[in-house]
Amino acid sequence: MVRPFGLSILSALLVPALLCAQPAPEGPGARGCPPPMDGPGRPGPMGRIPGPGPQGPPVFKFLGLTAVQEQAVQAVRDKHQPALMAGHRLLGEKAAAVRDGMENPALSEPQLRALLAAENEARLQVVLEQRATFQEAFALLSAEQQAKAVRLNQKRQKEREARRDVMEEEGLPGGPRP
Q1: From CA 7, how far away is CA 67, in angstroms rounded?
Q2: pTM surpassing 0.85?
Q3: Residue partners of 112: CB distance under 8 A and separation at least 6
Q4: Looking at residue 168, what is its pLDDT?
Q5: How far is residue 119's CA from residue 122's CA, in Å, rounded to a whole number?
Q6: Mean pLDDT lowest for which of 50-54, 58-62, 135-139?
């Protein structure tokens, strides 16, 4: 028998899920459900997950790229995309192996260390490929655009630090990092 309190909790969990699962007759975003995302990014459960668009990393969209620069940046991204996708796939496999190893009591510490070292190597390869992509795209910018990009990145870093300070003051996760 379901008690009234349990029923109210169950209904509180199910009703919003059912409302969001049904198509909204009023259009996207009705009834508090997030609207589906269109445009750049990668596929997600409710549309597109934000990510770098056709102009490359987020900072590039604020630099006033010319059409030629946009095409050149996209060519750099297209050149590195296969290696990045393969690197992310490999990293996911290595991370899954580490998670499985953590749960396996028969796995020795040296074996777990080897799995973790392999995951870290895969992560390093992804970071190096991302860095190469950014450096090639950054070299396509004019001196003024490069200076503006540096200023924007410094501003973003200060904003991140300010958010971390607030999180730390509130005792929430996401405080300062070493």
Answers
A1: 59
A2: no
A3: 98, 101, 102
A4: 84
A5: 5
A6: 50-54
